[in-house]
Design goal:
The chain is an alpha/beta fold. It has 3 domains: 81 residues, Arc Repressor Mutant, subunit A (Orthogonal Bundle); 88 residues, Periplasmic binding protein-like II (D-Maltodextrin-Binding Protein, domain 2); 90 residues, D-Maltodextrin-Binding Protein, domain 2 (3-Layer(aba) Sandwich). It is built from 9 helices and 11 strands. The strands form 2 sheets. Strands 3, 4, 5, 6, 7, 8, 9, 10 and 11 form a 9-stranded mixed beta sheet that branches. Helix 1 crosses helix 3. It is globular and about 75 Å long. The chain starts with a helix and ends with a helix. The relative contact order is 0.15. The mean pLDDT is 83.
Length: 279
């Protein structure tokens, strides 16, 4: 008999194309994922993947199984959320996903206060670069900065929060040196492959066209603190940092809107309702 657990492992490998990535996402070791996939292949009598230098690619049989596996996953999620919605107890887990900057720079005091008020709720804050999928029940609540409301998944229930603004920031020491006549141009610190937006070029500080690229939000803040250059940051990060200052002559811009998102029946549980009402 084919087990749902084996199908679940197959789905994660199929979506990511990597056994090691699947192991990290599922919180198990590499060998466990291989064993589960091998068990599924044995039960079905067909090979699910081709192992290539670039990763794992579905075979023709694997493609067929993938469509049926998605249907099984959807049914499992509906069953789980339907049962979960009947759970009106306060004791138990609550998984909240958000970007790292929201957790560390904005909401941690609130999350701490909620945990203090409800000691029986086991909080799990998932603050990683890759946000959890609510539809697949990877988290109960998502807190996200949304740039375009049209991008919100239609199957999620959303509660609109405040608009967030951003600005251009530089270290106070670097700004003081510039004001005292330092002639060297200031580099732009940019995230990953993103370029320098046109709206930031109107600042008074001299900027060089040579950028300093970085992939992590906290490293971005550390870089500007060290005086490497100037960068765009949400105001809740830049204004709260005593080592940073806004670049003279630069305007604010819309960073995005904060949304609290839940899925289907999950939002009816008491723990989720308490958290959303508190936040």
């Amino acid at each position: 008999m084919i087990g749902w657990d084996d199908i679940r492992y197959f789905l994660v490998v199929a979506r990511g194309g990597s056994v090691r990535g699947a192991a990290a996402r599922l919180g198990v070791n590499h060998a466990t994922v291989l064993r589960r996939v091998a068990q599924l292949e044995q039960d079905l009598g067909a090979k699910m993947f081709e192992k290539l230098p670039s990763g794992y690619r579905l075979t023709e049989a694997g493609e067929e199984v993938l469509e049926l596996a998605k249907e099984m996953e959807s049914s499992s999620n509906r069953l789980e959320t339907r049962v979960l919605s009947r759970d009106q107890g306060v004791r138990g887990p609550l998984r909240v996903t958000m970007a790292p900057t929201l957790a560390t720079r904005l909401l941690m005091p609130d999350l701490t206060e909620f945990a203090r008020l409800h000691p029986d709720i086991e909080m799990e804050i998932q603050s990683a670069g890759e946000l959890a999928n609510l539809t697949n029940r990877e988290a109960d609540v998502a807190i996200r900065v949304v740039y375009d409301r049209k991008t919100l998944p239609p199957n999620l229930h959303g509660l609109k929060g405040p608009d967030l603004f951003g600005g251009v920031y530089v270290s106070r020491d670097r700004l003081a040196a510039w004001r005292e006549g330092a002639s060297d141009a200031i580099r732009w610190i940019v995230i990953s492959a993103h370029g320098i937006p046109d709206w930031v070029r109107e600042g008074e500080a001299p900027a060089t066209g040579v950028s300093f690229r970085i992939t992590d939000g906290e490293a971005q803040v550390a870089a500007v603190q060290q005086g490497i250059g100037m960068t765009t940051l949400p105001c809740f990060v830049g204004d709260a940092d005593p080592l940073l200052a806004r670049v003279p002559g630069s305007a604010l811009h819309m960073h995005g809107t904060l949304w609290i998102l839940t899925q289907g029946e999950t939002r009816k549980t008491k723990r989720v309702r308490l958290f959303i009402e508190f936040l």
